Amino acid sequence: MFKLDVLNKMSVEEKYKYMLIFIEDQCSYEKNALANLSNASAIINACIDRLNWAGFYIMRDDELVLGPFQGMPACNRIRIGKGVCGTAVAERKVLRVANVHDFPGHIACDSASNSELVIPIIKNDKVYGVLDLDSPELDRFTELEETYLVKCVEILNKYINWEEV
Fold this sequence. Notes:
The chain is of the alpha+beta class. The chain is built from four helices and six strands, in the order H-H-E-E-E-H-E-E-E-H. The protein has a six-stranded antiparallel sheet with strand order 3-2-1-6-5-4, sandwiched between helices.
């Protein structure tokens, strides 16, 4: 059982460690990828403060398609090389953007978003999608969030057969 009140007593890094433990626990006993991604987005949203969107885009026919998420309705499809998510896939690297309005070609799915962190999901040298976080705050994301969310994707890669998503 997930209890939010326990998070109130934790430091930021303790919350992130708890997030990883909880995601690993969820994925270790549930084999359905959609259920795991849905719970992962909810856990991330609960454990990381000051977000307005947390979720996944999954590769389908050379474009990113909206997957499980927490937040306002989002763009359904993102072409590779477009916006922060599409650029992260094209460059196969994590993108931490302090001000999305300064990012060339930024796609504004939610006008409240001001900063973004995108972690490509790469397994066996193939890109399967991205984990995307948005915040209404400028320069919200730090190396700490990047480090723990990369670990989150590593946990998901351990348990999820992306070919079945």
